[in-house]
Amino acid sequence: MKIIIVGGGSVGFQLAKHFTAEKKDVVLIEKDPEKARILANKLDCLVINEGAGNIQVLRNAGLEEADYFISVTDSDEVNLICCGLANNDKTFKIASVRNLNYESTRILSERLKYIDLIVNPEVEVSKRVIRAVEHGAISDIIFFEKSGLQMRNFLVGEDSTFLDRDIKAISQDLGKNFLVAGIARNDQFIIPTGDTMVRREDNLYLLAAPDTMDRIYETIGTEKIDIRKILIVGGGKIGRQVARHFIGKNPGKQAIFKDIARRLMGRDAGDATVAVKTIKIIDRDYNKCKRLAEEIPECLIINADISDEAIFKEENLNDFDLIVTATPSHELNVLAALYAKKVGIKRAVSVVSNVNYIHIAIRLGIDVVVSPKNSIIDPILNFIGSGAIKNIHSITDTETDIFEVTLKEGSQICGKQVRDLRLPPPSLVLTVNRNDCNIMPDGNTELCAGDHLLIMTKQQSVPRIEEMTNG
């Protein structure tokens, strides 16, 4: 598979890193000379230091043989124009587009017709925020389509019942049908065995059915709460879309195209609902507040600076159930969420881009941290897929993937027990879905054709596992 990526920013870099790990033929085009030089030293792929708005540059990159063309620069116009230049019958086009209101611009609206997938960062972030809030804002959450299972993460504190115990003992004590699928520890991601010890500040990734997950969180002291009052800090696109969702208001065609709106408002995250009664939006931009008051009269709009501590007292914000911080300043998002929890707001969701801030925010106790970069990468990975492999999720900055695959008749691992699979290490079969029943496998579990497997592995091992599961 050949993939051309335009734009060597954080998203383009992560995509190129992911696809090269899977042994795909990747070409990255970056016009900034210094950035291109750094990328060439970090990535095992061809890096072209040119502007992609030239058809000859695209041809030199191998456009005629490309299966996918992905444009993820910081400029919507560049992304749209490049995808227009790349238009052919063979290549799928993917573009990152922040401003989707191009209907009135004839030239750019024509370009949109040739794009197979439009990914909007604000929409994807909003979806992840909404999904987390609808399930209690306890942690980030990943859903797996076929099995109906979910994966959540939580940080092990110094008073945790999991601290300094091995995985086997934890599983026996809880007595629930769940799995510790992975552990993020410092800069490592560990796929654990039963003997793996849990340490302080480990970020555990748990896999279970929704009702089991709720009971696990109750056991560890994090109960689900009724979220009735939501405070949103930042009246930009993310804050506006989250507010509209919870008051049951459509985004409107001026804000976003109908198909993207359907993706945002559709309940692809599950069946959970939140009976929100009050939403307040705080923003320090007076003109933005004025527009919000006209657009969303159901919400109370406050023109104030959230960094002013007095605002919490003046507006009685400490009795809110949840704060969502979604300003352009990710440092402010972290600080505001931490202060809100200190004064009594029960749950906090923050939008944070910087990887270091993400880890700090989790350690300091912010319940859900949403990364714009990761939010945009997952839909691209799922669109491209890899043959029989579906529903791919990349764990933040770990080079680890979780995916679903159906075992085909005649595959190398049909009829084998899990202990004899010889999957590329470190890999783990998390669950086996057979006849719509989920099995948490042990070494004696025998695999059959038609089994739907959920597997966690390193990105470089994905092609080998796909080969083993195909007939």
From TrEMBL:
Gene3D superfamilies: NAD(P)-binding Rossmann-like Domain, Regulator of K+ conductance, C-terminal domain
Domain RCK C-terminal: 139-222, 390-471
Any one GO molecular function term: potassium ion transmembrane transporter activity
Superkingdom of the organism of origin: Bacteria
Gene Ontology CC: one annotated term: plasma membrane
Keywords: Ion transport, NAD, Potassium, Potassium transport, Transport
Pfam families assigned to the protein according to its UniProt record, in alphabetical order: TrkA_C, TrkA_N
Domain annotation RCK N-terminal: ranges: 1-119, 227-370
Coiled-coil annotated residue ranges, if any: none
Protein name listed in UniProt: Trk system potassium uptake protein TrkA
